[in-house]
Structures are given as structure tokens and as C-alpha cells.
Specification:
The structure is a single chain. The protein is an alpha/beta fold. The protein has a seven-stranded parallel β-sheet. Strands 3-4 form a two-stranded antiparallel ribbon. Helix 1 packs parallel to helix 3 and helix 4 runs parallel beside helix 5. The longest helix has 17 residues. The N and C termini lie far apart (42 Å).
Length: 246
């Protein structure tokens, strides 16, 4: 109950400056059945405030298990007694390192639920460089992951021109943003790492698609949740991000 109350308070005060909440599933799952209850209630609270829900679990597995992840996060599971709904998120994060067949299943799950999926491309943690920046001949691994996003993007193309297949691209390595935008022109970038991890809003300009300021979704948790005034912190970040599109 305390976890739900704190999260719902932050949604209420900071939500007006936001478009989505991104619950980190591990923080709820570690609390067992009580955590799952709190997660479900937090998602409901976000929807009441008109916010989208991005389930941040970075799921990924062989196709049969990937399908189960899709059902759990955005879909439903058929049973002899009728369908059982999952979390009902609007989008989820996923790990593409298992390859095309697993990614295809996750994209299909998002498509069936009219949801979105953000694939990890270049994450914000310091250790990411050792793996994600490694060369695959003439290009780094993170560019190969970006190619996977771009190949899947048409499957979830929207009327705006943006795709429901997005990419997780950290703000802590802004030198990659321009090239990744070239490789994924139609995808929304989910950008963690602003604030407590050291990423700066003013460095995110190259991530914007031409004429599409809504092509980035900037995630900030500690810098808002632990602020003395979460509402003011969220509104300040909102203003900084929108100024990039001017």
C-alpha cells in the first residue's frame, strides 16, 4: 500500500507535465504478490490521469516465451474459462539480442494490442559501451540493433508517420544520437539517463526527427521523484524538452 500511495502521489503532482509513466517492473516484482497488486493499481492511477503506461521490464526470450511476455504486458491469455487480461500497458521495453524471431513475436504482440514496443539499442548505463559499442565489422553493435528497429518499424506505422516500434537510447552518450536518428527516422526514442545519471536535456536535439518533437520520450525518475518539489521538477524538464523543437 505504501508503494502505491507514493507512486500515485507522484502521478498526481507531476503528471500534468508528463505524457507517460514508466514503472520499473523489477521494483514491484521484488515485493511478490503485494508488488503486483501495487503495480496494477499504479497503472490504473496513471490512466485516470490520462497518462500512457510504458512497462519497463526489458523482456526478451525465445519466441514461445516472448509471446508469453507480450500477453503478460499488453495482451491477454486464452483459457478454458475465457481470456485473462495482462497488465494492459500501452507499451513495453524489450531486449532484441535474441534476434529477429523473438523481436517479430514481440512486435506482433504489440500490434495485436494496439500498443508499442521499445527495443534496447544504446542504453544509458556506463557499462553499455563494452558490448553495445563493439564493432561488427564496419559498424558497432548498437547500429545493428537500430537496423532491427528500422526493419520492424513499418509493421506499427501510425498516421503521424511515427512507428510504434521505438528504441531505448540513453542520454548519457549523446554522441550517438544523430547517427541513430538517421538509422531510425520513424521511431520514437525512449531516452533514459537525464538527471541523476548525468544526461542533459540540451544535448538531445539530434534525437529529434525533423518536424516531429513528439519523436522523443524522455524518462526521468530520481530527478523528479526525489525532488523537493516534484511538480516543479517535472514542469522544468518538460519546458526544456519542448524548447528543443522550437
Amino acid at each position: 500500500m505504501a508503494v502505491y500511495e507514493e507512486c500515485s502521489r507522484l502521478i498526481e503532482v507531476a503528471g500534468p507535465a508528463c505524457v507517460a509513466v514508466k514503472p520499473q517492473l523489477a521494483c514491484f516484482e521484488r515485493l511478490g504478490q503485494h508488488g503486483w497488486w501495487a503495480l496494477d493499481e499504479v497503472c490504473r492511477a496513471a490512466r485516470r490521469e490520462g497518462l500512457l503506461v510504458v512497462a519497463d521490464g526489458k523482456r526478451g526470450d525465445v519466441p514461445v516465451t516472448a509471446a508469453a511476455y507480450g500477453q503478460a504486458l499488453v495482451g491477454e491469455t486464452e483459457t478454458p474459462w475465457g481470456p485473462v487480461g495482462g497488465l494492459g500497458a500501452d507499451a513495453f521495453t524489450a531486449n532484441p539480442l535474441l534476434g529477429d524471431d523473438a523481436v517479430e513475436v514481440l512486435v506482433e504482440a504489440a500490434q495485436a494490442a494496439a500498443a508499442g514496443v521499445f527495443l534496447l539499442v544504446r542504453t544509458s548505463n556506463p557499462g553499455a559501451a563494452r558490448v553495445q559499442d563493439q564493432s561488427l565489422g564496419d559498424h558497432p553493435l548498437h547500429e545493428e540493433l537500430a537496423a532491427m528497429v528500422a526493419e520492424s518499424a513499418p509493421k506499427l506505422a501510425g498516421e503521424s508517420g511515427l512507428s510504434g516500434v521505438g528504441a531505448v537510447v540513453g542520454a548519457t552518450a549523446p554522441q550517438h544520437l544523430g547517427r541513430l536518428r538517421e538509422l531510425m527516422p520513424d521511431s520514437i526514442f525512449l531516452i533514459p539517463g537525464v538527471g541523476a545519471q548525468g544526461g542533459k536535456p540540451e544535448d538531445l536535439g539530434p534525437a529529434l526527427a525533423q518536424g516531429r518533437p513528439a519523436s522523443i520520450l524522455v524518462a526521468a525518475s530520481r530527478s523528479i521523484g526525489r525532488a523537493d518539489d516534484p511538480a516543479a521538477a517535472a514542469d522544468k524538464l518538460r519546458a526544456e524538452i519542448w524548447s528543443l523543437g522550437e
